[in-house]
Automatic annotation (TrEMBL):
Organism field: Rhodnius prolixus
Membrane topology value: Single-pass type II membrane protein
One Gene Ontology MF term: alpha-(1->3)-fucosyltransferase activity
GO cellular component, one term: Golgi cisterna membrane
Protein name: Fucosyltransferase
Location(s), subcellular: Golgi apparatus, Golgi stack membrane
Keyword line: Glycoprotein, Glycosyltransferase, Golgi apparatus, Membrane, Signal-anchor, Transferase, Transmembrane, Transmembrane helix
Enzyme class per UniProt: transferase
Domain (Fucosyltransferase C-terminal) ranges: 149-252
Record family assignment: Belongs to the glycosyltransferase 10 family.
Enzyme Commission code: 2.4.1.-
This protein's pathway: Protein modification; protein glycosylation
Main location as per UniProt: Golgi
Amino acid sequence: MSMLVTILVSVFNRVMCSFTANIVLWWTPFLDEPGRIIRCGNYSRCFLTSNRKYKDDPRLKALLFYGSLFNQSDLPLERNSKLWGLLHEESPRNTPLLSHEVILSLFNYSSTFSRFSDLPLTLQYLPSLDDLTDQKYLVSFEAKSNLEDKLAPVVYIQSDCVTPNNRDSYVYELMNHINVDSYGECLNNKKLPVSLSNPLETMMSDELLHFVSKYKFAIAFENSVCDDYITEKLWRPLIAGTVPIYYGSPSAKNSFSKVYKCVNQNDCV
């Protein structure tokens, strides 16, 4: 049955493509895209696909590149008049080439974490502004204090232990001065519940937010220090009602009231 559905979808997409004047091709796809009809810009309809058999189709108008898979040795040989678009939600450490102007100049449009890109993804990890004021996960300061015989005042959850900013070195030193419950693979001294063991699937889950909300402080260190690169590491404790000790985008410093002196780790030394 599943094979029949796949065949029918493939046939449908080919038929629909024949009625569409414009094609958008994922050259390095964010997700595998066999083909579907989308609305796009000034065109009424476009056929979006990652199938490179359409690379020489005269209806091809634009090529899209996913930054983490970008390879300078695997590019279309003829640029012609086609538009190139870049999608890259990660920090430059994933693809250092994308830190160079000569490479960025290849693209007509970009959608990255930078506020200066054409379609900024700066708030990509914040589900809603309302989440910052919602008290769904709120645990009172008194209740958190009552948990101090079981929990440290500070929580650290991280499994990417090799980073350009060497964040674990700072956390290691911090642990000499204050108790830190460290989950994940980095500096581990406590185990996460099995249900939270997959970080990609649970990074903003209800269960993890309730878990973090029991702590007074959360270490929120990005893997790289880049303007505008702000991920769930900052938003997660803010949504959970826990004070983040933040190290990352310098532009975040002027975005939050300094109610606590140590919201920014640079103020804690």
